[in-house]
Amino acid sequence: YLGSRSITQEQSCQSDQCSLYFAGSTTLFNALLIKCLEKEVMALCRYTARRNTPPRFVALVPQEEEVDEQKVQVAPPGFHIIFLPYADDKRNIDFTEKVPASQEQVDKMKEIIQKLRFKYRTDSFENPVLQQHFRNLEALALDMMEPEQAEDLTSKNY
Questions:
Q1: What GO biological process terms does the UniProt entry carry, in alphabetical order (predicted)?
Q2: Per-residue pLDDT for 44 more than 60?
Q3: Cα dihedral sign for 15, 26, 36, 47?
């Protein structure tokens, strides 16, 4: 933890990645989240993803839990990890003119967004570690040489 900055200040940083994951102590996590939300600040931190990678400066932007009318969670509480750019990554772009979107373009974009939405169900995704365990047991019981590899549908495909 390096410090904090007001969330209401203009955030002119361009990030290359964002994430909602935070590992570690739940007590520390909850205390930090509550205080950041109360004070309306984001935490500035140094983040090292792996032992052999250089550290990066990040902003932890708090997100409050959101529930709908039926008390169903819409957005979980947590932090968005925003990777801050280095000084030489920032540049000023001069815009010569503003080009507003036509109503047809707005309508087409609304159609695209509607097609991208889907109802999230936890049972739609199998636990890859558990599935691999079951396949290992099956291979052992059937005296197979090698078990089938379970496909991880939860990991990103880059």
A1: double-strand break repair via nonhomologous end joining; telomere maintenance
A2: yes
A3: negative
Q: Per-residue pLDDT averaged across 27-53, rounded?
A: 89
β-bridge partners, 5: 42
Three-class secondary structure assignment of the chain: CCEEEECCCCCCCCCCCEECCCCCCHHHHHHHHHHHHHHCEEEEEEECCCCCCCCEEEEEEEECCEECCCCCEEECCEEEEEECCCHHHCCCCCCCCCCCCCHHHHHHHHHHHHHHCCCCCHHHCCCHHHHHHHHHHHHHHCCCCCCCCCCCCCCCCC
100 pLDDT above the threshold of 60: yes
Q: Regarding the domain delimited by 3-88, which CATH topology (the fold level of the hierarchy) does it fall under? A: Ku70; Chain: A; Domain 2 (2.40.290)
Confidence grade of residue 157 (pLDDT, cut at 50, 70, 90): low
Q: Where are the domains of the chain?
A: 3-88, 103-141
